[in-house]
Structure formats: C-alpha cells, structure tokens
Amino acid sequence: ASGDEIATAVLELKRLRLDRRNIGDMDGLDCCEEATHLFLQHNVIERIDGLAFHRALTFLSLDHNCIQAIEGLRHLPALCYLGLSHNRILAAHPGQVPLSVKFLDLYGNPCSLSYDYRPALVEGLPGLLELDQVPVERGFDDDSEGGEERTEVEDAASGEVARANPPTSVAPATPGPAANAARTPLPSHEGVSDKLLSELLSGEAGADELLGTARGKKAQILARAKERRAQMRDLKHVAL
C-alpha cells in the first residue's frame, strides 16, 4: 500500500485499540476524527485531551489510567459509554460529562466514595441508564433520603451486571461498605449490561435502541428487587 493509502486508512479508522501500551498522553488522536470507538484502558494517561473534533465518538474506555480530572469531554455529542474506572479522579460533576452518556463507570476513584456522588450524577444526567455497572433507578438514586431501600435495589440489580472491563490491578482507593454492597455479585439471569454493551461495542444498536431495551430490562430487575424486599419483610413479620 502507498503512503497515501495508509494515510487515508488511518483517517477513516472507526475503532482504535491502544490499550495496554504504556501510553502517557493522548496526543495524535486528532488524525482519527472519524473514530467511533477508542480503547485506551490500562495505560498511564494523566489527562484527557486530543478529542476536540471527535464528534462521532460513541464509546470511550480510559479505565485503569492515572487521570485526575474529568475534562475535555463535554462537547462530544454522540458519546454513549464513558469508562473512567480505577483512575485518580477526586471530583465528578454532571457538567463535566456529555448529556448523551448512557453508561458511566467511575468505580475505584476517590470521588465515588463521596456520600452525594451517585445522587448528584443521576440528577444531573437525565439520560443515564447505568452508573458504575449498577442500573439507575430514578426516585432512589437521585434522592438523598431512603438510602437503605436504594441499596437494596442496587444490590439486586448488580447481579444482572457484567463488567465490560474487569479490573486487573488494585484500585487506588478502597470502596466503603455501601459501594461493596452495591456491587456484590448475584446469580445473573438476564445479562442486561452485557447485552447492551455488546450491542454498543459492535455498533449494531444506537443510543435510542439501547434506551428502549434497557427500560424493559430495568423494569424486570426492579420487579425482582421489589419482590425480594417483600419476601424479606414477610420473613421478619413471621420471626416477630
């Protein structure tokens, strides 16, 4: 292939895999403006940049890096999945994340230990379907009260979630009891997140299709969580 042909191929890349390459920055990504999927997990990147013109980007994985702040993303209109787990992010605000994001993972960052971390993101991102691999439930996650009931829902839902990027290293911060409870694995039956993320990764489904599918699956999850809570109340009543 000629130099021109190679250059054209690079410019037209849709899926770029640069994970586990000891990359320290994101310089040079401006030549791949047509990319829809960027895989940059397990590197040593400290800052998010180089995405000024990636308006077609739908999937961005920056898990397991050294990133300290969420920046340089708000302008991305098509971003649906944002993976930033196991970094060094101290604060996470809805204004830092594109409103188009449906799946957001910040697990393993210091910011995820804040008491109002989850409610603030859920309230500020109305299209969010899943946060830290736990399905979002409006009325529970965006309410500062009712924490015990919200934890029950998250605990039940976590069994339906398969991590798209399993951790292979120790997280920079140790999650508290509530975070651990929300991610305790239970037997999986529907594989909700696995199916949705697979469709997103393959490019077979757009955000609207994912939203419709997720709503149906989430209703099933919440119904099972409600049934389990009722069973627990019955058991307590019998015990008394």
Rg calculated over all Cα atoms: 19 Å
Q: How many DSSP E strands?
A: 7
Query: What is the first-to-last residue Cα distance?
Result: 78 Å
The fraction of residues assigned to DSSP E strands is 5-15%
Secondary-structure element sequence? HEEEEEHEEHHHH
| Sheet of most strands | 7 strands, mixed
Query: Oligomer, anyone?
Result: single chain
> Overall mean pLDDT score?
74
The order of strands across the largest sheet is 1-2-3-4-5-6-7
Describe the structure.
With 240 residues, the protein is α/β, with parallel strands linked by helices. Helices cover 33% and strands 8% of the residues. The chain has 6 helices and 7 strands. The chain has helices at residues 3-11, 117-124, 147-158, 177-182, 192-202, 207-239, and strands at 15-17, 37-39, 59-61, 81-83, 103-105, 130-131, 134-135. A 7-stranded mixed beta sheet has the order 1-2-3-4-5-6-7. The longest helix is centred in the C-terminal third of the chain and has 33 residues, at 207-239. It is globular.
Question: Can you summarize this structure?
Answer:
This protein has 240 residues and is of the alpha/beta class. Helix content is 33%, strand content 8%.
Task: Please give a handful of descriptors for the protein shown.
single chain; 240 residues; alpha/beta; 7-stranded mixed beta sheet
SSE inventory with pairings:
Layout: H1 3-11, E1 15-17, E2 37-39, E3 59-61, E4 81-83, E5 103-105, H2 117-124, E6 130-131, E7 134-135, H3 147-158, H4 177-182, H5 192-202, H6 207-239
Parallel strand pairs: 1-2, 2-3, 3-4, 4-5, 5-6
Antiparallel strand pairs: 6-7
Helix pairs in contact: 3-6, 5-6
